[in-house]
Write a structure and sequence with these properties.
globular, Aspartate Aminotransferase, domain 1, 14 strands, 368 residues, Aspartate Aminotransferase, domain 2, alpha/beta, 38% helix, binds pyridoxal-5'-phosphate
């Protein structure tokens, strides 16, 4: 049996007629950039997030950059980000001219360790970017308290967490602004690059919309210099089709994760995901930990099972951040886990027999 890491082809086949119709409409009406189909998606996604505003942009990295700029963050400021994430999180900070400050991750949830933040605070600290890594929300209750105490802004990196919840509330009830990616492999994925910024704040929404579109108020009235980062009409129309299925897909991801949990319970040498009791995890990734990561990954591959590593090098250990002169033991948890984490295939189109096969192959290997 072959188990791919994800299966966007099967997903497309299930919704192909609707997708073709959506693309056709955009092309017929020449609604290529922003326009009617992007507006429709923005309204639908804002509602899905339980928020007042959604602004479509070019991709998730731009969403983070534009959100930071709209909050006036730049040269001379510091922004705290988790040591374990995709590079876009910290890259966006540097792009504004602000300084990246990494915080180690929590040993159980892999999200930013809220207890490590106080010692990183300086006069220059302006914001925190929690990442809801793998689809599990970070501890926003604690982060909001810290942010309130120190007058920091919170920008949520929701690239892996479409539809996640804390205390049965949507993520939009926390923090100032949320940034989403619709990269094809995300829980809600476009057919190309796309992203969005979501907020309940009218002023932030207005700033973001201008920043993403050359700082313009009207067609040729540029209030300040911004960037060109707008959503394509084709992506907006495709995302509107796929959004209708998102709750169902998330439900299946969660069921698949529960099945993995059950089959891997007390598997030797394997740590399954810990989920905080008050959150809804949306399982963008199902990440286990094992000391035998390299050997296990190879064994699974030999048996036709694709896996991933998120991420093989913790952000502070990347060559790109050598200039910050960190030592590996500055981030003991992230630096250890980069050698142990392994993402098993999880996606809505996956069958139970595929999960059974993955777990059977894995358990047999770990027993040896
Ligand atoms: C995918 C991702 C991004 C960047 O999104 P793009 O749309 O690829 O620019 C940012 N942060 C995290 C955590 C991501 O997983």
């Amino acid at each position: 049996m072959q188990v791919p890491f994800s299966d966007l082809k099967t997903q497309y086949n299930l919704i192909a007629s609707e997708i073709k119709e959506a693309i056709e409409s955009v092309v017929k009406e020449c609604a290529f950039i922003n326009g009617k189909y992007v507006q429709e998606f923005e309204a639908r996604f804002a509602k899905f997030c339980g928020a007042k505003h959604c602004i479509g942009v070019g991709n998730g990295t731009d969403a983070l950059f534009i959100a930071l700029k709209a909050l006036n963050i730049g040269v001379g400021d510091e922004v705290i980000v988790p040591a374990n994430s995709f590079v876009a999180t910290s890259e966006a900070v540097t792009l504004t001219g602000a300084k990246v400050v990494f915080a180690d991750c929590d040993p159980q949830t892999y999200n930013i360790d809220v207890h490590k933040i106080a010692s990183l605070m300086t006069q220059r600290s302006k914001a925190i970017i929690p990442v809801h890594l793998y689809g599990q929300p970070a501890d926003m209750n604690a982060l909001q308290q810290i942010a309130h105490q120190h007058e920091l802004k919170i920008i949520q990196d929701c690239a892996q967490a479409h539809g996640a919840e804390i205390d049965s509330k949507p993520l939009a009830s926390f923090g100032d602004v949320l940034c989403f990616s619709f990269y094809p492999g995300k829980n809600l994925g476009a057919y190309g690059d796309a992203g969005a910024i979501v907020t309940n704040n009218d002023e932030i929404a207005h700033q973001v919309r201008m920043m993403a579109n050359h700082g313009r108020e009207a067609k040729y009235d540029h209030v300040f210099e911004g960037v060109n980062s707008r959503m394509d009409g084709i992506q907006g129309a495709i995302l509107s089709v796929k959004l209708k299925y998102l709750n169902q897909w998330t439900h299946t991801r969660r069921k698949n994760a529960a099945y993995y949990d059950q089959l891997l319970k007390d598997a030797k040498g394997v740590v399954t995901p810990y989920v905080a009791s008050n959150v809804k995890h949306v399982y963008h990734l199902y990440v286990i930990r094992t000391k035998k990561r390299e050997e296990l990954q190879q064994h699974l591959k030999t048996n036709g099972i694709a896996t991933g590593i998120h991420y093989p090098i913790a952000l502070p250990n990347l060559t790109a951040y050598r200039y910050l002169k960190y030592k590996q033991d500055d981030f003991p948890v992230a630096s250890m886990y980069q050698h142990e984490v392994l993402s098993l295939p999880i996606y809505p189109e996956q069958t139970y027999s595929m999960i059974e096969f993955v777990c059977e192959v894995l358990r047999r290997y770990m027993r040896k």
